[in-house]
Amino acid sequence: MPESEAATPEQTKSHRILVIDDEAVVCLSCARILASEGYQVDSKQRAEEGLELALTGQYDVILLDLVMPDMTGLEVLERLKQAGVPSEVVIITGYSTIQTAVDAMKLGAADYVSKPFTPDELRLVVRKVLERSALIRENVELRKKLQSQEGFEGIIGGSAALEQVFKLVKRVAPTQGTVLITGESGTGKEMIARAIHNLSPRNEKSFLAFDCSSLVPSLIESELFGHVKCSFSGAIATKQGLFEVADKGTLFLDEVGNISLETQGKLLRVLETRMVKKVGDTVEREVDIRLIAATNRDLLEMVRRQTFREDLFYRLNVVPIHIPPLRERSGDIPRLAMTFLERYRKTYQFKAKYFAPEAMALMESYAWPGNVRELKNVVERIAIMSDNEMIRPHHMPLEMQRVPARPVQGGVPRTWEEFRALKHQACEATVQELECQFIMQALERSGGNVSKAAQDVGMQRTNFHALMRKYRLTGEDLIPKNGGQ
User: Fold this and answer.
1) Backbone torsion region of residue 188, taken as left when φ is above 0, otherwise alpha when ψ lies between -120 and 50, otherwise beta
2) Could you give the CA distance from residue 448 to residue 455 in angstroms, rounded to a whole number?
């Protein structure tokens, strides 16, 4: 929601806000500003009375003054967190120092606003905090769903394109039909092959996977069909091939486009006759296997170039299944990212739990050339490097931050007006990222001292503070990386 855009009644009617401040004018101002946005606002000037009301847990946001005569705001905040009150707390301070903000953030405050504040500043802070709270609730709900449902045969995704793949898998699995799975590297072709095996009558037998690009062509034949002792240099003993080992089960040949023409001919014969002959042997043996092949190459183009046998292509392509790249099903990215984050968090006890909306937007707009495999690796890297529960845009890899957001649908613009709009959006995204990094680096150089950072870059302190709030640079982001030494 743009900063200048007011929240609609539907968005705010259920939100309750409590103001705890010993100054009557602050309570009245907050109530007037927020009530005009549609929020339900209560206020208390005594900290004890405010705490008693806050402990009911009926409020979405609590605006809490730091300095009050009967009890400090930090003491109230600590009592609320000890009691497990789910309300988000925004600190009101007339003592605008980084240390007080850091102390409040350490105790669990969501944000802060400095006196004197403008109506727009207050609206923006409350709106951002409510958005963050809603995001956390969504993440929690998503985590609960993930705990009870691991997707289709362990494959995470609910996009229409992937649902079509699941339908094909369920239809072909009970049959004996040969399947050719196509798709870019990292899309999960082996997982689809395993799903077919698991749903087939052969599921109690072996599932063997072989990457045809992992060996030189001269050794692939021996690996697939086996060899007899002394059939070639280094053959010191007779060896069974994968076709024999996978008997009564499923054999998955990944990157089948890398097989030489000579081996392609022998593979075709095995598929046609269901008989296999070891390298150097004269005897054929019957095998009963379900073959599933996969490739990230265009086999039809290879057929036209005569680098792949046409008869083998049609023998493999009995039931084709194409897995769309991740960039064509960006709706699956949040669920995939949360699934991987939850797994790593449980396994390694990482702190990271949630993705901020801006961080998730970066992930959804990124092209993901490495597909799901790349996403999984990126989430693991982020989880390792992040010291906070909330993953923000600056935690993202640099290559992701530097790529302007692409349109989720529609591809390249058709008209000049659409192109200009996209160009403006891309420029704005790049400028905002530079602006955020500019502020963060200034704070790092100053050891977290806002006045010093503002002076260092030649800005007024109030303007520097406004940019900090714009990019939600809270206490956790302002703690110096060297621990303040």
Assistant:
1) left
2) 13
pLDDT band of 444, cuts 50, 70, 90: confident
pLDDT at 222: 86
pLDDT, position 209 = 94
pLDDT at 143 over 80: no
SS3 of 347, please?
helix
Per-residue pLDDT, 201: 94
Q: Please tell me the distance from the alpha carbon of residue 275 to that of residue 279, in angstroms, as a whole number.
A: 13
Cα–Cα distances (Å) from 415 to 140, 365, 406, in that order, read 41, 21, 16
Q: What is the pLDDT of residues 14-60, one digit of tens each?
A: 688 999 999 899 999 999 999 988 899 999 999 999 999 999 888 98
Question: Same structural domain for residues 465 and 349?
Answer: yes
**What span, in angstroms and rounded, lies between the C-alpha atoms of 42 and 245?**
73
Pairing relationship of beta strands 250-254 and 207-211 according to DSSP bridges: parallel
Q: Are residues 197 and 134 in the same domain?
A: no
Dump the DSSP string for 191-259: HHHHHHHHTSTTTTS-EEEEETTSS-HHHHHHHHHEE-TTSSTT--S-EE-HHHHTTTSEEEEETGGGS
This prediction's pTM? 0.58
Provide the residue type at 109 as one letter.
A
By 3-state DSSP, what share of the chain in percent is helix, strand and coil, each rounded to 5? 50, 15, 35
- Which residue's entry shows tokens 């303007």? 463
Beta-carbon contacts of residue 181 (< 8 Å; ≥ 6 apart): 189, 192, 193, 292, 293, 294, 295, 321, 322, 323
Q: Are strands 275-277 and 88-93 parallel, antiparallel or unpaired?
A: unpaired
Enumerate the H helices of 61-154 as residue ranges.
73-82, 98-106, 119-148
The domain boundary residue, chosen from 323, 345, 366: 323
Whether the CB-CB separation of 327 and 400 falls below 8 Å is answered with: no
Residue 101 tokens read as 């903000």
Percent of the chain with pLDDT over 70: 81
Residue where the block lists tokens 């797994």: 343
Contact 393, 359 (CB under 8 A): yes
**Considering all CA atoms of the chain, what is the largest pairwise distance in Å, rounded to the nearest integer?**
99
Q: Which of 64-78, 236-250, 421-435, 444-458 has the lowest mean pLDDT?
A: 421-435
**391 plus 431 within the same structural domain:** yes
Contact indicator for 110, 131 with CB cutoff of 8 Å? no
Quick check: helix, strand or coil at residue 86?
A: coil
Mean pLDDT for 9-16 is 57
For the chain, how many structural domains are there in total? Answer: 3
Determine the average pLDDT of the residues in 333-355: 87
Domain co-membership, 336 together with 317 = no
Calpha distance 393→363 (Å, rounded): 9
